[in-house]
C-alpha cells in the first residue's frame, strides 16, 4: 500500500517534469526587434529553471522515496531515471549555452549603441560566434545559430533606425 502511494507521487512528479521538458522545447515566439541579449536571457532563465528542478530531484525527500521504490523494485523507476537523465542534459545544455553566450555579451552593448558605422565590432563578433559554433557541444546547431544571427541582425537594424531617427 505504501509502495502504491509512493508510485502515485512519482507518477505525478513524472507528469509535471515531462510538462516542463515539453514547454522548454517549444518554439519561442519573439518580436522582430528582439536583440541578441534576449538570447542570453532566455538561456539564463532556462538554466535557473532546470537547476531548481535538479535541486528538487536531489533533495533528501525525493531520494528517500526513490530508494524505497528501488527496494520494492517498482516499475515506475525506469521512467524516473529517463526523466532524471533528460533534466540533467537540459540543465547542462542551458549552463553551457549561458557560458558561451556570455562571451558575446561584451559585443551586445556596442552593437546597440554604435553608429551605423559599427563595422569595427562585426569581425570580432563574427569570430566569437564562429568559435561558439566550433566548440559548443550544444549551441552549434543550425537552429541556435539562426536564432542568434537573427537577433544580431535585428539589433543592427534597430541601431540604424535609431541613428536615422535621431540624426
Summarize the structure.
This protein has 167 residues and is mostly helical.
Q: What does this 3D model show about the protein?
A:
This protein has 167 residues and is mainly alpha-helical. It contains 7 helices and no strands. Helix 1 crosses helix 3 (60-71), helix 1 packs parallel to helix 4 (76-102) and helix 5 packs parallel to helix 7. The protein is elongated, with a radius of gyration of 21 Å. This is DYH5 protein.
Descriptive key words:
Methane Monooxygenase Hydroxylase, Chain G, domain 1, DYH5 protein, dynein light intermediate chain binding, mainly alpha, 167 residues, 0% strand, dynein intermediate chain binding
Query: What is the CA-based Rg, rounded?
Result: 21 Å
Helix content estimate: over 70%
How far the N terminus sits from the C terminus, by CA atoms, comes to: 75 Å
List the helices and strands in order.
HHHHHHH
CATH topology: Methane Monooxygenase Hydroxylase, Chain G, domain 1
CATH architecture: Up-down Bundle
Describe the sheet with the most strands: none
How many β strands by DSSP? 0
Q: Give the uncertain stretches in residue-range form.
A: none
Query: How many helices?
Result: 7
GO biological process, one term: microtubule-based movement
InterPro entries: DHC, Dynein_heavy_tail
Protein name: DYH5 protein
Pfam families: DHC_N1
